[in-house]
Specification:
The chain is mostly beta strands and about 400 residues long. The chain has two helices and 29 strands.
Length: about 400
Amino acid sequence: MKMRKTACVCAALCASLCAAADPAPCAAITVAAGDQARIDTPVAVALPPWINAARELALFEVRDGLRTEAPAQVAFGPVRELRWILSGATPAGTARRFELCYAAPRGGGGVRLALNPRTLDVSVGGAPFFSYNHAHVAPPGKIPPVFIRSGYIHPMFDPSGRLLTEDFPADHYHHKGIWGPWTETTFEGHDVDFWNLGRKLGTVQFAGFERVESGPVFGRFRAKQEHVDLTQPGGGKVALDEVWDVCVWDVGDGGRLWDLTSEQACAGASPLFLKQYRYGGFGYRGPKEWEGDDYKVLTSEGHTKKNSHGKTSRWCAHSGVIAGARSTIIFMCSPRNDRFPEPMRIWESGGCFFNYCPVQHREWTFEPGKTYVFRYRVYIHEGDIDAERAERLWRDFGEPPVATLEPAGSK
């Protein structure tokens, strides 16, 4: 009797382990590479209402009858998305197949976000990547206090820990690592400059987090920001509400990849008029070491530092040397942006400054009740500029693989 009971327990345990190792799928997903070969490419698919995204979900790739778990993560919002990395190489014209199951996913690794009193710190695979300054950062030394600001990224590092941003540079105190104010604008009859803080006409400030999340595939935060007209009586008035939706991917290829989506809307019933101007919008101030002959620029259209200002691009790569080692950062502009491909502001001489400026060629009026969305991707790697690599990365962003989802067993 005792032996029979033990056998039953063992059989039940075995069945349980088998079920845990091979959960039944609730959905089948196909990812088509398209006409572009893919390497370690971020993928996303919308989750329909019949999938309970509040439950634990595990993703498995199916190849030659074998199932291998692929780390995946749900991004919540108006549209729930399953996001993962199409790991390794996927040849052009091929498709890969996955199964989504209600099961505990594999943990470990990934992107971690740590919220501290002054910064939101992002790490990838345990290594520091960048910090988002949600608290006001006071100018150091004898820099005037008018240059205080919040709501920007600095410091940001390459995979080996070399600093790739600069804050309060001596030639432009208002440059802030990675930031995004408009310059020449008009609001309620006032000329407002949110970029040049020294003019005391406007600023941008952090206004709260909507979401902060870490995970095995990506870390993400949504930060509210306010563009404030300082010319108004009573200390200022918010002209523009903005949300930064930042997603940092663990691509596993030794590089650093992240997306910035800026959602902007008039704060009230008054429009914001953006004058045609040579800079304003998504900006980057690079490290002070990036200057002279060692500092290179290349765009998707083949322009360089000497002739890229005022031109448009799908992507723009910047490369320089720090402590004898070269790094490259690639900025990518989405074809979903209203004014794609966007014009660029790049210094023809001197150090590293980059700006995608949608109003460089013509003015723009932001109307109340509308949301204006700007989408960018940034990739950082060690070594020199590789145009073929940059083009592949942009196509992953601008022309991503197509993922389709259907109920399991529907075919």
